[in-house]
Write a structure and sequence with these properties.
Elements (H helix, E strand, L loop, with lengths): L1 H18 L2 H10 L7 H20 L9 H19 L6 H14 L4 H29 L7 H17 L1
Helix pairs in contact: 1-4, 1-7, 2-4, 3-4, 3-5, 3-6
C-alpha cells in the first residue's frame, strides 16, 4: 500500500508540475500584463530549478527523480518572456537567458561548485517565494498572480517534503 501511495504521489506531482505555471501564464496573457509578478522572484526560482536539474544530471540520478524540472524550467522561461514582453522590454531577457545557459556549463566544472550550488538551492527557493510575497506586500496589488499556481506549488512542496 505504501509503495502504491508513493507511486501516486510521484506521478501526481509530475502531472501537477506539467501544469503548474499554466494558470499563471494564462492569467498574464489574458490580462496582457505582468502586474503583480516579481521579476527577482521569478529569476531566483529559475536559478533554483536550474541548479537542481544540473545537480541531478551531474550525479546521474534516475530521470524519474527529476523529470518535472525541465518542465518547470520551460514554464518559468515562458513566464519570464511574458513578463518582459508585457513590461515592454523583451530584449531585457537576453542577459538573463545568457546567464542561465552559461550556468548550465559552469556548474559542473568542479564538483565543489555544483555541490555548493545545490546546498544553496533551498535558500534560493525560499528567497524566491519571499521576494514574491515581499513584492505583493509592498505593492498591495496581486495583479495577475494566480492563486491556483500557488496552490499547486504548495502541493508539490508537500509531496517533496514527504518524500525528501
Amino acid at each position: 500500500m505504501e509503495k502504491l501511495l508513493l507511486l501516486f504521489c510521484n506521478w501526481s506531482t509530475l502531472g501537477v508540475c506539467a501544469a503548474l505555471k499554466l494558470p499563471q501564464i494564462s492569467a498574464v496573457l489574458a490580462a496582457r500584463s505582468a502586474r503583480g509578478i516579481s521579476l527577482p522572484s521569478l529569476l531566483l526560482e529559475l536559478a533554483g530549478f536550474l541548479v537542481f536539474l544540473r545537480y541531478q544530471c551531474y550525479y546521474e540520478y534516475p530521470l524519474l527523480t527529476y523529470l518535472e524540472y525541465p518542465i518547470l524550467i520551460a514554464q518559468d522561461v515562458l513566464l519570464l518572456l511574458c513578463a518582459f514582453h508585457f513590461n515592454g522590454n523583451v530584449k531585457g531577457a537576453a542577459p538573463y537567458m545568457a546567464v542561465c545557459v552559461a550556468s548550465w556549463f559552469v556548474l559542473p566544472l568542479q564538483k565543489w561548485i555544483i555541490d555548493l550550488a545545490m546546498n544553496l538551492s533551498t535558500f534560493i527557493s525560499v528567497a524566491s517565494k519571499f521576494a514574491q510575497l515581499q513584492y505583493l506586500w509592498k505593492t498591495r496589488d496581486s495583479g495577475t498572480v494566480s492563486a491556483l499556481t500557488w496552490s499547486l506549488a504548495a502541493y508539490t512542496c508537500a509531496r517533496s517534503f514527504r518524500n525528501g
